[in-house]
Amino acid sequence: MNLLASESEVLAPLVSGWFLEHAWLIPVVPIIAFALIILVGKRLPMKGSELGVLSMFSSLVLAAGAGYQWIQRTNRATEEQFVEPVIKSWSWWRSGGFDFGIGHHIDGLSILVLIVVAFISTLVQIYSLEYLRGDRRYTHFFAALTLFSGGMLAMVLADNMILFLLGWEIMGLCSFILIGHWWEEDANSRAALKAFFTVRIGDVGLLVGISMLYFSANDWTQEHLGVSGFSIRGISAWALSGAPNSTVITIAAVALFIACIGKSGQFPLHTWLPDAMAGPTPVSSLLHSSTMVVAGVYLVARLYPVFFVGLDILGGGGNLIVVIGGITIVISAALAFVQNDIKRVLAYSTVSQLGYMMLGLGAGAWMPAVFHIFTHAFFKACLFLGAGSISHSASHHSFDMKRDMGGLRKVMPITFTTWIISTLALCGVFPFSGFFSKDEIIDNVGYSGYNLFMIIGLVGAFMTAAYMTRATYLTFFGEPRGASVGHADHGDTHDTHNAHDAHDVEQSHGPHESGLLITVPLMILSVLALSSGFLNATPFGESWERMKFWVEPRSVEVVEETHVGGPGESLIINLPSAEEVHSKSVCGSAQPETGICYAPQLNHAPFKWLKAMMSMAIVFLGIAISWILSTLLFTKRAPRLVGLTQRVKILGFGHKLLVNKYYLDVLYEKVIVRSIAYPVARAAYWFNQNILDGILHAIANSTRKISGWVYKNVDQLIVDGTVNNSATLTKSLGTAAQPTQSGKVSQYAALLFSAAAVAALVLVIINT
Amino acid sequence: MFVNQFLFLGAILFCIGVYGVVARKNAVLMLMSIEIILNSVNINLLTFALRNGSTDGHVFALYIIAVAAAEVGVGLGLVLLVYRNKKTISIDDLSEMRG
Q1: Each residue of A426-450: pLDDT tens digit?
Q2: I want to staple A265 with a disulfide (CB 3.0 to 4.6 A). Which of A270, A538, A721, A746 is the partner?
Q3: What pLDDT, in 10s, does the model give residues A85-119?
Q4: Tell me, what DSSP letter sits at residue A93?
Q5: Do B95 and A742 make contact, defined as CB atoms within 8 angstroms?
Q6: Facing A753 at nearest CB: one of B22, B25, B91
Q7: Does residue A748 sit at the B interface (CB-CB below 8 Å)?
Q8: Using an 8 Å Cβ cutoff, are A82 and A578 in contact?
């Protein structure tokens, strides 16, 4: 190693390419498409949807190109070499010494999420072509959907926190628009408002965190890297440099994590996510799989050094992220058991899976958590689109599993197959993709010493398997019920989630398989749900961990070396070089001595088949128990089980608690909102009525009196008087001057010459 | 050089011209009076030009002669038209512009 680090050694130069250098195009394309759809969309043959699909597809192509070139870049680099992210930044605006930049920061993490977002967005848009056909706000739907993806893409490749915040807020706005897409119904607009405001609560934390980081990191980053304190690269390096004050960085990390709690639906701000089901199903699918909710997890992964140092992640004991993640996994999985709405089951499952990602990040399992973003996006999008397919084609736009579904496996074979594959992936069954990510998270959490949270993770896996089995049983097995029986009853009794959809005549002939625009995205997603796990298949050894090699930043100390070129040219090349061997890096654990660290040194749990077998057994146990209970309860109507919650008091209490969602909504709306907002509103009303109106009335009365006086005295006498008098004066002057206009040329000449004579006289007098 | 005689001649001619413009009723005679005024001015200009030994006055006088010729052309044209319409050239009969 010492020999290699000698002066003559030049590390493999990092390759770049057109796609990496121009990655900023990826979000720009959808944002331009959004403007075009708004402006000319309604006049296009497909009402603007073609622009949306096309722009998402071009983003996907650009992202895939960038991904290919990134892989080349990492493959060319040596094992111990830090692969520098491709950063381009421009000055956006300056204000009083602050320099706000705009630019992109491309590394493995952003490439991974970019590809996922662009891919899922493309499929969802294609799916929406069919699902929303004939909707009254078809064009606006595609515009908002495109901007939504554009905001996420901009956030993902942001090189500084200001641009990050911009993308974050664009998404918040678009989620509001899309959840409230059918705003004519009160419930939908309420859900949209709830989502917006709940996320806003978290956003306060984001603003606080960004400003704190800026003011504490700016000096250091300007000195060492020449970038502002908003730069993500600068903040990461600063956090690991040993320079930051531990209190400041802890508070900043907590503030940022509050933003993640709001955005990613973590306990206790998860309540907006299930209500967000009021939006059209493609929106739910996009929102839950790849865009909105992943943003919070992405923020933690992006600024991981800040959280790593601020919350002392590998320091043992519980930290905030692990605790919140653990609580979220269990409570949301429990809630999923009492839901009848299929989309709500999936929503709580998303909350629970996000809990896994947070748990992984909090326990130092960065790579498995990021990989879980990747795999989760595919199978969750597939599940949501499957639920949409059922409601679109089989259950008359109802999402109620108990009333309108059942026995659908025979009539919807494609939807059923894709659903089963995705469910198994979600449960984490080998060899589906969820196994490779979720099991790794649980394994690494235990390996890092969080034994309690490893058990929570296993309990969560059990519960996931159980509630997904219940949902699958209710939907696809047993006897058909309600709308899915087949005779076309078009009663208005169904849930009216999608009542605004156009009803094609052929669709009213009972349940059937959906069209190709719906099933093809389902099939693509299910293939990925089945296979994407092999990109980072830890069980098969190091050579299978491709994703880790491409995505995980190598935690080596980067030392800037200056090479002066040959005679005649003094070319200065800054090349990062490895100071120490990968496994012994001091990054994250101590202050780097000579170089700069960009990523903390993390542990990776060695894979053991025994542990995997154990968690697999737990999953299968969950499936089996849930299957048996579901059969007894929903098909055989076993007398011992039916009505159990009414008979046994303690179970009834638990059931009631779950049905009411732990009374969190009650707490927020009835207690917090009422105790804060209502008195404020009453006081504001009183203030408005008595003080503001009083002032207003007094002002109005006095104004009226003053204006009366002004009218009488100023306006009538002075203004009008002046006008009238000047007119009279002019008239009399005119009358007086009239005789001079005699029409006689001689007289005019006499006047002219006498005037000239007078002028001459005056001139003579003046000159003498 | 005695400039006084020339200046007196100019002044007398100017006064004759002014009298003619103000007192005469015939339009053609009014035009002739205007010519006299212009020529009196010419005399003044030439007098001072000779006295000061510069050519500016000569140039001006030539200009005035050219302009006067043009003016007479236009003026006689007007008089001709007035005669055609009114069968008279008395200025006192042309007072339609009275205010």
Answers
A1: 888 877 888 888 888 888 888 877 8
A2: A270
A3: 888 888 877 776 777 888 888 888 888 899 989 99
A4: E
A5: yes
A6: B22
A7: no
A8: yes
CB burial of A749-764 (b: ≥16 within 10 Å; e: otherwise) equals beeebeeeeeeeeeee
Instruction: Please report, for chain A, the start and end positions of each structural domain, with discontinuous segments joined by +.
Output: 664-729+742-767
Q: Which residues in chain A have their CB less than 8 angstroms from residue B18's CB?
A: 753
pLDDT digits 0-9 by tens, A21-58:
888 888 889 999 898 888 887 777 778 788 888 898 99
Of B22, B23, B98, the CB nearest to A741: B98
Q: B28: which chain A residues are within 8 Å (Cβ-Cβ)?
A: none
Paired with A98 in beta bridges are: A95
Helix segments in A496-648, DSSP class H? 516-531, 546-551, 609-630, 644-647
Residues of A with CB below 8 A from B92's CB? 744, 746
Please state, in angstroms and as integers, the Cα–Cα distance from residue A156 to each residue in A115, A159, A232, following that order: 10, 9, 11
Judge whether A27 and A157 are in contact, CB under 8 Å: yes
SS (H, E, C) A375-413: HHHHHHHHHHHHHHHHHHHCCCCCCEHHHHCCCCCCCCH
| Number of neighbours of residue A407 by Cβ within 10 angstroms | 16
Domains plus CATH for chain B?
9-88 (1.10.287.3510)
- Taking a contact as any Cβ pair under 8 Å apart, which residues of chain A between 116 and 155 contact chain B? none
For chain B, 99 residues long, give each residue's pLDDT as a single digit of tens: 678 889 999 999 999 999 999 888 898 999 999 999 999 999 999 999 988 888 889 999 999 999 999 999 999 999 999 999 888 888 888 877 776
Query: Confidence band (pLDDT; 50, 70, 90) for A11?
Result: low
Distance of CA A244 to the CA centre of its chain: 29
The C-alpha atoms of residue A508 and residue A396 are separated, in whole angstroms, by 8
For A442, A446, A592, the CA distances from A607, given in Å and listed in that order, are 11, 12, 30
Both structure tokens of A281: 């199903």
| Residue (of A619, A615, A585) closest to A600 by Cα position | A585
- What residue in B sits closest to A754 (Cα-Cα)? B18
CB-based contact, A746 to chain B, within 8 Å: yes
Report CA-CA distances (Å) from A69 to A108, A289, A415: 11, 25, 36
How many Å apart are CA B50 and CA B58, to the nearest integer? 9
Which of chain B's residues have a Cβ under 8 Å away from the Cβ of A746?
21-25, 91-92
pLDDT value of residue A3: 38
A741 close contact with B: CB closer than 8 A = yes
